[in-house]
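Supplementary notes for students who missed Thursday's class. We covered one full example, reproduced here. Read the sequence, then the structure, then the short commentary at the end.
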Amino acid sequence: MFQPFTASPTAATSPATKNPISIAASVSPLLPEAERNYLTAGLGYRAGPLALDLGYQHIHQSDRRGRTRGRTSFAQTPQQLNVGVYHVDAHVLNATLAYHFGGRR
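Structure (token representation):
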């Protein structure tokens, strides 16, 4: 059964405990979460029973500081660990070709 975690002020600094670390201390290229902006466009064309749809999406994510090396001491702060800056942009393209059986609906 799940037991909720209750942190005490001294437990977070003790290396003997297995407390979750703060989110700011765990940001890495494996989890580059930050605010994102999406720009999406698409078009479709239909000629008889054939249909072609094309789409494009650009994803821009704000730069984010993050961890570039592992923790060597429990005394290290997120500011000491988060020495890298991650920049993420993504381009998503899609195309769909469809054939409609039985004519138009």
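Commentary. Residues 26-99 form one domain. The chain is about 5% helix and 45% strand. If anything here is unclear, bring it to office hours.
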